[in-house]
Amino acid sequence: MVNYPTKRSTPATKINKTSFGHRGMNLEDDLNQTNQYYLDLNMANIHKKPTPITIVKVDYPTRSKSKITEAYFNVPSTTDYNGVYRGKAIDFEAKEIGRLTSFPMSKVHPHQIKHMENIVHHGGIAFIIMRFTGMDETYLVFIQDMLDYIKTSQRKSLPYEWVKSNCHLIPYTLTPPVHYLKVLDETIFKGVHR
Amino acid sequence: MVNYPTKRSTPATKINKTSFGHRGMNLEDDLNQTNQYYLDLNMANIHKKPTPITIVKVDYPTRSKSKITEAYFNVPSTTDYNGVYRGKAIDFEAKEIGRLTSFPMSKVHPHQIKHMENIVHHGGIAFIIMRFTGMDETYLVFIQDMLDYIKTSQRKSLPYEWVKSNCHLIPYTLTPPVHYLKVLDETIFKGVHR
């Protein structure tokens, strides 16, 4: 049985390591590198999903190559990343917050939140990876913790201070740049035989 | 512990129910309906991934709407469908075979096969759903069974007779049209407490 983290005043695991000077890569690039690292080292199989679009027109300039000439972005109904780690389905969304000092809930679509709750209901692990660019800090926030806070506090954003005290700092390392599976090892999989 | 099906001369479960007259929907539409049904009835959370494309040019005719004017299809590196069911990561590819009497392995890209093997390695469940349109029959083939056969027989296709005897027929029902989770219940999850 895995230890699902529940609401608590102090986090079960808090990684106190300071993040080192970050090279200004964006979160998506860092996560792509991290997922490739996990794949190469046979640690996990987690991928970014393609951008959901509606294709309207396709040209066939040559027999082998098709060129999309009209398409539109769709509102995503699921999250950006999913896969499998240590037998569990992993599902998450990643957001950069710039220089704000709180994470606005409007950054995540309500159906994405509903989707993540549903993943947890079916036995998967769902979370948001948020980077406060101003602080150069990246956190992993379990969807249940976030929803508990939102419901209790009636707020429309997660203040940086709350994130700092209740969420899981992902230390910056060179390889991989965003080692978020370490957080899962130290929380959900804590004490679980590999 | 789940019962992973292994190579065998007779299948652990063979659904002998005859498929009823099918209404000529294509497999992708049937699977979308099926996954929506699973989602609505809170049985599983499985989605088709968006088509992977590379976006080259985007126009912004209005402030709110972006129009993609040049994009190309990518070779998919993963499968088309994934999600979570009964706590396990689910990953599969779906292929229609038309009136052929064997499933050509060339229908699935080698990196998709490698991807599915990797999913199983990490504890997920991976398979191919194949529809022999000519016979109006849809089968679920576990990736391990397929690879075992390919390695042993040195063939480049799966003959219909082999599929019929060794794979799992998905009976056609109206709701849902392709009830593939039933096959998982009767094989991998057989005897596993829900």
Question: Could you explain how this protein is built, in words?
Answer:
2 copies of one chain form a homodimer. Chain A is α+β, with helices and mostly antiparallel strands. Chain A has helices spanning 27-40, 110-121, 143-153, 160-166, 180-186, and strands at residues 45-48, 53-59, 67-73, 81-85, 88-96, 102-104, 125-132, 137-142, 157-159, 168-169. In chain A, the strands form 3 sheets. A 6-stranded mixed sheet of chain A has the order 1-4-5-7-8-10, sandwiched between helices. A two-stranded antiparallel ribbon of chain A has the order 2-3. In chain A, strands 6-9 form a two-stranded antiparallel ribbon. In chain A, strand 4 and strand 5 form a beta hairpin. The N and C termini of chain A lie close together (12 Å). Mean pLDDT of chain A is 88; it is low at 7-21. At the A-B interface, strand 3, strand 4, strand 5 and helix 2 of A face strand 3, strand 4, strand 5 and helix 2 of B.
